[in-house]
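Thread: sanity check for a docking pose with zinc ion

Original post by kr_44:
Hi all, I'm comparing my docking run against an independent structure prediction. Below are the sequence and the ligand SMILES. Could someone generate the full complex and paste the structure tokens? I mainly care about where the ligand ends up relative to the chain.
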Amino acid sequence: MFLGEKSGKYPDGNQVVVRGADTLVAFDTPLVANRLGRELLDADLVILGHVHEDHMAGLHRLPRARVHVHEADVEAARSWEGMARHYGYGPQVLAGMRTMIEEKFHYVPRPDAQPYRDGAFWDLGGGVTVRAFHTPGHTRGHCALVVEPGGIAFIGDIDLSSFGPYYGDATSSLAQFRRTLAAVKDIPAKVWITSHHKGVITERATFLALLSAFAARLDAREAAIADYLRRQPATLAELVEHRFLYPKALDDLYYSDAERRTIEQHLEELAAAGRAVQEHGRWRMR
Ligand SMILES: [Zn+2]
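Reply from moderator J.T.:
Ran it for you. Here is the predicted complex with zinc ion included:
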């Protein structure tokens, strides 16, 4: 594993490469991939755990490597149009995103990307294998990639960060993320590697503690939204303006759109549970 800057804090990430007797595989290609030599450039295959700009930032250096992506994310890897639907932001934000990811993330689409499914299995030779476990939520096609021998699970953007889960894109899903956070415990693994921040975790107890703190961010966000609505009924736009994910002092192109998608999903959950209701465009707690 090659640690990105600041332990792979976004915009960078951690690069995992796996060498079998016949095949060298890269899991994703974060920005740090741009600083690597043959250890990356000899890769025959890139398996993307999911599609986002920060996981494709070294693909331009591997034009001849095969690229495999879960079938639910593959269109996002194949074209800008697919990527734009994947993000699902407004047209102006998307236009800005395209320029930004081309400049900062060396973004190039991969029309040759091939789909894989849950349970996909790669034999790299010499007894080294990789298996995909579909773990949707962050994106619809997000997967954990488990290497044997060793039970090493690359869990990507189930990144166990203090920020918590990100489900602010069109194909993200809060409901799926909740199921994934429960299911990821059962993936047979002894070592866990995240794309950002945490890097390598070698103790199951540490992994479970970090996972539980990560999952608790969902409840903290829900509680913050519910508290706000108890004080004052609000429109979705007002909630987005208030911000529940990103500090007000910071701004990035996509923050408002990601806030909207995130808050909307919490409101849907609260409504489905009979706890919140929308009247004349304003949300309030019941
Ligand atoms: Zn991501």
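The pocket of zinc ion is lined by residues 50, 52, 138, 157 (CB under 6 Å). Hope that helps with the comparison, let us know if your pose agrees.
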